[in-house]
């Protein structure tokens, strides 16, 4: 059935992931006229851009959206991809948002009465707009991918599903952030020969001194630190997440241990020619950096425990289980039987459809806690939108409350009793 757009609404929300739905929940409660536009189906990214064995890295107790917390029986566990989709489905059903699926917004411009949205279902005018499409739009593949042999299958992490979806043979994974490290583990557990080119991603222990590290950090208020308060400032919005996993109940990802088990580790990928890839001598440096970040997090947890007088078990610190004896400089794909490459090299934002001047020189929106300098235009669902916690469900809920309050105030909606 073709979606029928209203001629005008007070608020148009673009995107029906967790951020768009969270904003809609607040507007429903405040009685603000709005519509949620989704080019595919609600929260489709959870199915389309996650591999089969994907689990959340954040524990289930952190899965809180406005009016709807985690409702399962494993608060300390980690929902799988399917479980997250089912949970979000129950969230949607709990308040029945004014959602139009299959409606793609192809253009957004300013108009005398607010904004004009050009969509696949026609035009829509809105006094205010929330762009809740996330920040991970276009998969990034380095240009040197064009120099790999034609017979080597290349997929981005967004399109990886499982080991069986790749041709037989060894696999090179490029990138060691959360996705790269977890996909390398997925392939390794499936018995594939894995080569992993590391980036400078940090890591964290899954648990320390009797609790999940994320539980400690939440208690310490780390996720409440704003981007303005952070030493790196706005540059923090480009940082790589710490790698760990929620798979099989949650555990550390120790690339050194994988190396002991036969995974081949390399430094930063720098070049490719005639089927031979070359790497910078950064392997030991990157491994040491990841471990140092993990240990610094433990230092912070120790200090918190001491300040608060908390009784917690003492735990021995990490000792490297493997140290590279040499830095591998090259990888001959044919000689090593590498038949496929998984690029876990991130995404770029793509806001070409937003024809409003609210972007910096790198294509990222400029805003403060989601509010831009253009009256009535907001962003939601971006990492570090306001705090470190903005990338987590609970952080999305807090950001959505703030943005919705601004929307309702501009709309003249009554303040709830």
UniProtKB/TrEMBL annotation:
What residue ranges carry the coiled-coil annotation? none
The answer to whether UniProt assigns keyword Transmembrane to this entry is no
State if Ligase is listed as a keyword. Answer: no
- InterPro entries according to UniProt: Auxin_biosynth/cation_transpt, CHP04046_FMN-dependent, FAD/NAD-bd_sf
* Superkingdom as given in the UniProt entry: Bacteria
- Keywords of the record: Oxidoreductase
Q: What is this protein called?
A: MSMEG_0569 family flavin-dependent oxidoreductase
């Amino acid at each position: 059935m073709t979606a029928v757009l209203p001629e005008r609404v007070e608020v148009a929300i673009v995107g029906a992931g967790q951020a768009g739905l969270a904003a809609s929940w607040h507007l429903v409660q405040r009685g603000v006229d709005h519509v949620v536009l989704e080019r595919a189906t609600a929260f489709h990214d959870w199915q389309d851009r996650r591999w089969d064995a994907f689990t959340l890295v954040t524990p289930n107790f952190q899965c809180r959206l406005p009016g709807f917390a985690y409702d399962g029986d494993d608060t300390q566990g980690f929902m799988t991809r399917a479980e997250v989709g089912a949970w979000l489905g129950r969230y949607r059903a709990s308040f029945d948002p004014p959602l139009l699926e299959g409606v793609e917004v192809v253009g957004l411009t300013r108009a005398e009465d607010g904004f004009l949205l050009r969509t696949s279902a026609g035009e829509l005018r809105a006094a205010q707009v929330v762009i809740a499409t996330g920040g991970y739009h276009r998969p990034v593949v380095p240009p040197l991918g064009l120099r790999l042999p034609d017979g080597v299958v290349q997929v981005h992490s967004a399109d990886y599903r499982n080991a069986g979806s790749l041709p037989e043979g060894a696999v090179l994974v490029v990138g060691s952030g959360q996705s790269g490290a977890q996909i390398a583990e997925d392939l390794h557990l499936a018995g594939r020969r894995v080569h992993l080119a590391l980036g400078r991603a940090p890591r964290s222990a899954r648990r320390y001194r009797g609790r999940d590290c994320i539980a400690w950090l939440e208690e310490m208020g780390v996720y409440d630190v704003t981007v303005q308060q952070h030493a790196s400032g706005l540059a923090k919005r480009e940082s790589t997440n710490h790698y760990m996993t929620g798979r099989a109940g949650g555990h550390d990802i120790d690339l050194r241990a994988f190396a002991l088990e036969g995974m081949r580790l390399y430094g930063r990928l720098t070049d490719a020619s005639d089927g031979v890839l070359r790497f910078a001598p950064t392997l030991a440096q990157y491994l040491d950096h990841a471990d140092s970040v993990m240990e610094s997090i433990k230092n912070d947890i120790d200090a918190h425990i001491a300040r608060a007088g908390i009784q917690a078990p003492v735990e021995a610190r990490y000792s490297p289980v493997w140290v590279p004896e040499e830095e591998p400089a090259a990888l001959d794909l044919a000689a090593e039987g590498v038949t496929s490459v998984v690029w876990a090299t991130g995404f770029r934002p793509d806001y070409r459809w937003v024809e409003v001047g609210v972007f910096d020189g790198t294509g990222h929106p400029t805003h403060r806690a989601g509010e831009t300098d253009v009256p009535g235009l907001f962003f939601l669902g971006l990492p570090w939108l306001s705090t470190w916690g903005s990338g987590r469900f609970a952080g999305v809920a807090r950001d959505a409350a703030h943005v919705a309050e601004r929307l309702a105030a501009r709309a003249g909606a009554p303040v709830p009793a």
